Inverse folding.
């Protein structure tokens, strides 16, 4: 019914389409494993089950909550409804201070404790990550 050229072209078009679809699927699958979602302390408290995956928690550093010693820093992230205690080993960004916005990336030990592996800083004294400002607006 169809000639040899038509069948060959159809085969190559189908092969290219399947290759592109497979490539896109693999890219999204790889990105899915590395995506870290932002949560507020209230969202962390309301989790149905704790995850062992990396998580980002953002909010404001509670006033008078920063405790430092030789090896680590402890502080509390708040969204003015709930609080989350954070422990971090390492140096914090220069702009990290009480009453300012912060995003901590790490692993949850329970609904009120996060062991951070990274503290994300803001750009200047007026900057707040969009996720933090949205979470704060929702919580008020």
């Amino acid at each position: 019914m169809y000639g040899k050229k038509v069948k060959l072209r159809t085969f190559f078009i189908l092969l290219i389409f399947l290759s592109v679809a497979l490539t896109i699927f693999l890219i999204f699958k790889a990105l899915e494993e590395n995506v870290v979602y932002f949560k507020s302390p209230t969202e962390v408290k309301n989790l149905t089950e704790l995850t062992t995956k990396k998580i980002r928690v953002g909010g404001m550093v509670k006033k008078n909550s920063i405790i430092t010693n030789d090896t680590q820093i402890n502080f509390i992230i708040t969204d003015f409804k709930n609080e989350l205690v954070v422990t971090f080993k390492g140096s914090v960004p220069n702009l990290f201070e009480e009453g300012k916005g912060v995003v901590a990336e790490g692993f949850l030990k329970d609904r009120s404790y996060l062991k951070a592996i990274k503290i994300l800083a803001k750009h200047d004294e007026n900057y707040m990550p969009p996720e933090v400002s949205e979470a704060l607006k929702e919580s008020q």
